[in-house]
Amino acid sequence: MGEFYVPISIESIETNIFPDVALYLKSGTNYVLYKSHGRDFSLRDAERLMENKVDFLYISPGDQELINEFMESNAERMLRDEALENRVKGKIIYQTSVNFVGDIFDNPDKVGDFDRSKRLVENLLLYLSDDKQALSSLETVMTHNYHTFVHSLQVAALSLLIHSEAYLLSRSEMVDVGIGSLLHDFGKTFVAPELLTKTGRFTDRELNILRRHPEEGYKFLKEKTRLSEVSLSIIRNHHERNNGSGFPQGLKGTQIPRSAQVAAICDLYCTLTIDQAGHKTLPSHFALHIMKQEMKGSFNERLLDILEILVCAEDSRPPLL
């Protein structure tokens, strides 16, 4: 995430508990100091900002590690706080997860901290199981600079929901699914940033580079971490297609591990429906039409039907584990 300031939802800044760091307001493309180091952030500050429709303050990149540690350590407590609205909890888990992914992508060597990944996915499961409108109440906090990180969380949340409908999995298996889905695009850390943000047509050479990211991510994580085979299979195979038209191996049908089949569906659905700024683009039913008709044979039809139920009638789903 480098030079980008990190958004912090106002509701997450608990008075007397939140670390003493400078807080900034965003004005256009600039960041203006709101609270300097050493000055308390009061309840009145929070009320005044929210009255003025300010949802987020920002911290400088130098304070990111401290804030990430605070957010990740306190997320479960805040998610279990019955006084907090689900909307607020959605902001907290979204922000905590996105900042985590950004930190991992910016510092690949941190990916070996399995307990950190596990704790985050456990909190995501806690949130998803507690909010029947979880998909719609999760709120983006991003500019396009965060697109890869937001996308990773969207894929993970949707993948967990589809797994809970399609299969009877243990809690530990669900955690493996969540970690693999959250890190499915980890291989993009080895792709030049200018290629990731390019708009317009790609050359054959650029496409070949981009299509290496599942294998690159898989190889790095297999060597450097203790991720399960379920997690690794998602990272390696989330661009495979049932008809063999995918990459990197051109697998077909049941050759593709089931969790990777789910991730492939979630990855494309989120790509079709959310733009670079984290805004809704295609309506859900139109994205599903593309996946079911124009790409017929690319995906498991039963899983597509479950996706349709979730995104078109989300309130009918049962709770997670």
Q: Strand pairing plus helix content: what structural class?
A: mainly alpha
Total helix count?
14
Give the ordered list of helices and strands: EEEHEHHHHHHHHHHHHH
Please list the strands of the largest sheet in the order they lie side by side.
1-4
The portion of residues assigned to helices is: 40-55%
CATH class bucket of the largest domain: Mainly Alpha
CATH architectural label of the largest domain: Orthogonal Bundle
C-alpha end-to-end distance: 33 Å
By CATH, the topology of the largest domain is Hypothetical protein af1432
Structurally, the number of domains stands at 2
- Low-pLDDT residue spans: 314-319
The number of distinct β-strands equals 4
| Percent range for β-strand residues | 5-15%
Strand count, sense and closure of the main sheet?
2 strands, antiparallel
| CATH-level-4 superfamily name of the largest domain | Hypothetical protein af1432
Q: Give the CA-based shape.
A: globular
On the 0 to 100 scale, the average pLDDT is: 88
State Rg: 20 Å
